[in-house]
Amino acid sequence: MSSMRNAVARRPHRERAQPASREKWGILEKHKDYSLRAKDYNVKKKKLAQLSQKAREKNPDEFAFGMLSQGKAGLGKHKPSTKDGVPTGPLSHDAVKLLKTQDAGYLRTVAAKGRKEIERVKQEVGLDSVTLSAKAGSHKRFADQDTGLNRSKKRMASGEVLESAYDIAASTMAEVAATEAVLIQELGDQENEPDMEKPKPKSKKALLAEQDASARLRTERKKRKRLQEMRVAKLEALKKRQREILAAADQLELQRAKMARTVGGVNKNGVKFKIRERKK
Description:
This protein is mostly helical. The chain has a domain at 93-191 and 207-260. It has 5 helices and 4 strands. A hairpin with a 5-residue loop joins strand 3 and strand 4. It is found in: Nucleus, Nucleolus. It holds the Pfam family Utp11. Keywords: Nucleus, rRNA processing.
């Protein structure tokens, strides 16, 4: 009889699904899922309670030779405070101050090398004007030489116009191009001078030579311009690196001053404080 009852087609059983408004939270949690999650939570809670009790009841004088050997992780093991005569614990306050002093000296050395490199690249770019004396050492323009292009630029107290590396490079390339144009014009004037005799037509070989010379001149000009652009980009990168090094050195000096308690600052709660000097 039961076999006949089981042979009849029945409506398939479907579990209640997650409501449409909560589909973003995934499938609906069933009781078996909750049971597994609750069991795991209780096991971890019990383990944490045991570890907490063990830490409270720990004997600081407890010792075993196995504590000196580091296991897989080495957590909870006693380790010697020195290794081969070198302390392995945290550094003292004086040791940290000494290390920061050495770091500051290294940054000063790197900054000095960077300044020399910047001066060398400046000379390559052409910042030193040939019209100035050797003592000047930089490209300068004064108010009496001012034009409409640089009237709005910043000046120093002596009237010197502060120009960027791109402006100097552009003016240098313009001067070079103007010089080449003058030379080409002079050569053309010499060739166009009237002769008493009837000018002979140029041979094919001469025309090819002129074309070759013109192509070489254009190639050389492009190479020179590209090299100038590369030098300007290198100069800007060196200046950026120099600014970062100087900023790091300033930050290190501030840290050393705070460790020596000679300057104020802001504590971890955001409260400003300052070192008050003794009244005289």
